[in-house]
Amino acid sequence: xxxxxxxxxxxxxxxxxxxxxxxxxxxxxxxxxxxxxxxxxxxxxxxxxxxxxxxxxxxxxxxxxxxxxxxxxxxxxxxxxxxxxxxxxxxxxxxxxxxxxxxxxxxxxxxxxxx
Length: 115
Hints:
Blueprint: H1 7-30, E1 36-38, E2 44-47, H2 77-90, E3 93-101, E4 107-114
Antiparallel strand pairs: 1-2, 3-4
């Protein structure tokens, strides 16, 4: 983070920040994989639009604020919790697969990568 008394630099930083937010929003709208952004407690704070491919009757707003563990099948919940805790402590976790519950009691495999 940069702090400056020079208004010109501040405006450039604001423009850069706006550009980063625009790129982030474009990624969330167009990335072909399902992307879920969590807080440190595992609550969903953002999710890509293609969530509707997995939960046909749900809108994005139906997921915001819910805990990701609610979507992990019961037999994978403990390992998921352990790996989430590990990721928080270590700062990252790469490519671990879990079974998630989908629409109409279906299941799908999701790959978890955290940073």
